[in-house]
Write a sequence for this structure.
């Protein structure tokens, strides 16, 4: 199995006051885990929020939103050790989408879109680092975090570090 190397990405979590929309990843990093919608930032993307909305629309089968409803709440650096010992870091910009248009459906990337109560997340079925930082995202906190993964992002090699910060400081990252 090839290991994907991704250096810059986005993740979008559509939310209501009480629920968050997750789906099961079908490919690449996070395959088989409940996750938000996202992926790599492309050179053709105008900016990071535009990349986030593009990925959301592609992976959700039609759910979309506007930049004014997209809230940049975190930056997480995922340090990944590959099976051959090589390491790479992927910086992921994490957003909450508070107003959305359309309905999420299963796609080749993401299946079984499901609204979960924020207090009833499927913690044991998320990627290993997600249970440590995702509750902070859903609480509306802004922060920078780091996570260290072993090969194929199946295990954590160190505890996840979270540093709360102001939205202004976050946007400078």
């Amino acid at each position: 199995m090839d290991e994907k190397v991704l250096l810059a990405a986005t993740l979008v979590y559509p939310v209501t006051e009480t629920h968050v929309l997750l789906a099961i990843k079908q490919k690449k990093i996070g395959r088989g885990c409940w996750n938000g919608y996202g992926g790599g930032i492309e050179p053709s993307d105008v900016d990071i929020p535009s990349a986030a909305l593009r990925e959301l629309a592609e992976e959700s089968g039609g759910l979309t939103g506007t930049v004014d409803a997209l809230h940049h709440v975190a930056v997480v650096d995922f340090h990944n050790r590959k099976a051959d010992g090589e390491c790479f870091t992927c910086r992921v910009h994490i957003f909450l989408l508070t107003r959305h248009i359309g309905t999420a459906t299963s796609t080749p990337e993401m299946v079984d879109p499901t609204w979960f109560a924020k207090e009833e997340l499927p913690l044991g079925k998320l990627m290993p680092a997600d249970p440590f930082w995702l509750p902070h995202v859903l609480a509306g906190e802004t922060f920078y975090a780091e996570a260290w993964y072993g090969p194929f992002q199946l295990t954590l090699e160190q505890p996840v570090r979270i540093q709360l910060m102001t939205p202004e400081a976050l946007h400078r990252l």
Observations:
- The first strand starts at residue 8 and ends at 14.
- The mean pLDDT is 95.
- The radius of gyration is 15 Å.
